[in-house]
Structure formats: C-alpha cells, structure tokens
Amino acid sequence: MFDQNKFDFDSTVTGNNNMVDNNMNVDINMNNENVGMGMNPTMGCPIQEGVQQKCIHKTIVHEVPHVCPIHTRIINHHIFRHTYRPQYTCSEENVVSNVQCGSCCQFR
C-alpha cells in the first residue's frame, strides 16, 4: 500500500536487456520524529492499515445439575405364625376324713 504523498508514480524505465535505469521520484520530506513510526508527515497521524480479523472457536462446557427425585417406599409385611406347645400343670387336692373312735365323754 503506497501513500501518494510519498511516491510519484510517474516513473520512467529505460534500458536494454543488460542494464535497466529506473527513475522514480520519492518524497523524503519526513522529519526525524516520524521516521520509522508509520506517521503521515502532512497530517501528523498514523496511517490506518486494513483490519485483520481472527476467528477463535472456543468450547465452553457448563455443568447444569438436574434433580431427579427417587422415592423409596418400604412396606413391612408382618406374619404371625401361631405355634402350640403343651404346658402341663398339676393340681393337688386334699380330702380330709375324720374317723372318730368314740368321744372323750365316754372315758369319764
């Protein structure tokens, strides 16, 4: 990219196959402050170059927690199994009999 203030595009090229003479007029009216800094000497501001655009693809992983409710229901089954066993008991009965062989009154 050429700045028209710096170069004269009306140049002449003369010569034969062995020798080429190129006459080009170049504007070298730049002061020492702007040399090498990309400054336009007539306006005092930098020359804007074309924008280079870079495309960067990023992959971002987001962890999104989901609540999945799980309910456990416990059912207790109670089974009553009846068993029988003998339980022996014993009872005792006392029967009293009075045998009277007379009375005291007889022996008086």
Describe the structure.
With 108 residues, the protein is mostly loops. The chain has strands at 12-15, 20-23. The chain has a two-stranded antiparallel ribbon with strand order 1-2. A hairpin with a 4-residue loop joins strand 1 (12-15) and strand 2 (20-23). It is rod-shaped, with a radius of gyration of 65 Å. The model has no long low-confidence stretch (mean pLDDT 75).
Question: Element order, helices and strands?
Answer: EE
Radius of gyration (CA) equals: 65 Å
Largest sheet strand order: 1-2
* Helical run tally: 0
| Straight-line N-to-C gap | 173 Å
Average predicted local confidence, pLDDT: 75
Which word captures the global form? rod-shaped
Note the beta-strand portion: 5-15%
Structural class by secondary-structure content: little secondary structure
Short recap of the structure:
This protein is mostly loops. It is built from no helices and 2 strands.
Quickly list its features.
108 residues; little secondary structure; two-stranded antiparallel sheet; 0% helix; rod-shaped
Task: Describe the SSE topology.
Layout: E1 12-15, E2 20-23
Antiparallel strand pairs: 1-2
